[in-house]
């Protein structure tokens, strides 16, 4: 689905379904440098099982026009614009990494809209190393290497991909290589600068699910614990073998956690 | 802070795509000799069919042993993913059938393996796909041959049999300027000698029968996608960017982005054409890949010794090996193939066809057969075998003469190979 938001073309994958006002809606928000296709299996499942699905491409990602947005707050406003355009009254958000901060912020700013949120591969604060930020600022290919290697569990190059025939490192690098200069840095800087996490957590009214990877090198489970502790209606699923790219590394376990959370 | 490092080539050759078998702890890649896979329940079955869950359904589409090979080759090439096929020719056909319909056009190097030349020049023509063959050394010919219905540029990393070095950076730039992908046959170079994706190619394939396997016991192919070509932006590939009634009205690019080409190739190409790889074959090719980084340097080292020997013989008229300064692509080879130009090359004997026949029949260590890239040294006379369907004009365009002999240098003691060649050359040059 293509819409105009703030005068620019914006895209969301809908699993080939029209938005049905009678159905619940889940918005999937990707992480830094990625796009809607990173939710392929999970978004498709919900789209074919009675939910409206909007797996968005944030500006300057995938099929959405740039420039990139500079802060988690701006990304949250941009997602809110989708709900206004489509006149959706209740929304659940599933966010990965940077997208999880958008989900958190959305639920805090729009408690009347937010039904449930899921934070996958998250941490607060989501600090990004200076080396990573600097490489991304210079549009140096090493930034893509850092995202690729740190974005997966250490055993990924020495184990099979659940998606037959796909090389997880190569697929990630291919996606990142399509980004315009400056986009990855804008995303990482937005994560690094986000400072409203605890304040937003205190405002949450809706249930929150955390899905964390036991071998996540970017956002290790311990770095989400303070946030989890501050959200009253939270639960946590830890997938021991997965790194940061839970949707690809552990697609079934991630999907099963989502199915359980949205079942009630 | 130092950045993270990828595992090295040698490590990936042994480990990529496989961890010890979770069911048994087996360290070697198990041969999953099964056609099909039991569903957990009806919902699981439906989810697999509708691509909501990853996994295997039927071994024509995917198989756990074959998947290890696919992932390993993709890792060695730096691709997003791969599909293993019944042969190298099946890989070429799968690439073309995924990207184009009747009415499409290909621009291909004229220096191709005879089987590929047949497929493009004759067989696909019957199905409405035309090919214009151009000199791999004339970049302007590639550019000029592109038509509105062109959908692919194609060549071999090292052309068969004259070892024309494809200028991948330049040809890929021509392709990309026209919104087209470049496909290369990387069989002769293997990822050990060249990484075509780093040079600009978008798709590549191997006849895994050759150096990847290296043992001459299994026929197979692998098609690899870099995942970097933007099909949507090109606007020339509705096969990947428009809803397809043949598969749930799926828009493959919208659905999967970087995986669009491989998704359609697997879900349509393997489903409908069915040229899949058997698990036993994948296992055998994997055994070869585990030593690719050890074998290729030895292949190249022995080839250099033999090229030097042949260069010293007055009965040899010409040697077509890019490491020789007289080869037209010598400078290009130094730039694109710093680790060596492989282990397959041709030379012309003085005395033409008859001298070629006597030479081949006098060899004892070299085997006279139609293959290359084996651990054993091989020899063939292209004009009467691999390229026999080509006209004299096409033969000349491909750099093949009546006395051209092609060698594939194996892993035997190079001194034994030189002795064998020396004896055969003496017989070939004796007056009748």
Q: What spatial form of chain A do the alpha-carbon principal axes imply?
A: globular
Based on secondary structure, the structural category of chain A is: alpha/beta
Output mean pLDDT of chain A.
Answer: 97
Read across the widest sheet of chain B, the strand sequence of neighbours is 1-7-6-5-4-2-3
Main-sheet strand order of chain A equals 1-2-4-3-5-6-7-8
The end-to-end distance of chain A, rounded to whole angstroms, is 28 Å
Portion of residues in beta strands of chain B equals 5-15%
Given the structure, what is the number of helices of chain A? 11
- Overall strand count of chain A: 8
Most extensive chain contact?
A-B, 45 and 55 residues
Low-confidence stretches of chain B: none
Largest sheet of chain B: 7 strands, mixed
CATH class category label of chain A: Alpha Beta
CATH class of the largest domain in chain B: Alpha Beta
Structural shape of chain B: globular
Give the fraction of residues assigned to helices of chain B: 40-55%
Report low-confidence residues of chain A grouped into runs of 5 or more.
none
Layout of helices and strands:
The complex is a heterodimer of chains A (264) and B (432).
Chain A: E1 2-5, E2 8-13, E3 24-29, H1 40-47, E4 51-57, H2 72-85, E5 91-96, H3 98-109, E6 114-120, H4 130-137, H5 141-150, H6 168-177, H7 183-193, H8 197-203, E7 208-213, H9 225-229, E8 234-239, H10 246-249, H11 251-262
Parallel strand pairs in A: 3-4, 3-5, 5-6, 6-7, 7-8
Antiparallel strand pairs in A: 1-2, 2-4
Chain B: H1 9-15, H2 42-49, H3 64-77, E1 81-85, H4 88-99, E2 105-109, H5 114-126, E3 130-134, H6 139-145, E4 150-156, H7 168-177, E5 182-185, H8 190-193, H9 196-199, E6 203-207, E7 221-225, H10 231-234, H11 238-241, H12 252-256, H13 260-272, H14 279-289, H15 292-311, E8 316-320, H16 330-336, E9 344-349, H17 352-362, E10 367-368, E11 378-380, H18 392-397, E12 404-408, H19 414-429
Helix pairs in contact in B: 1-3, 3-14, 4-13, 15-19, 17-19
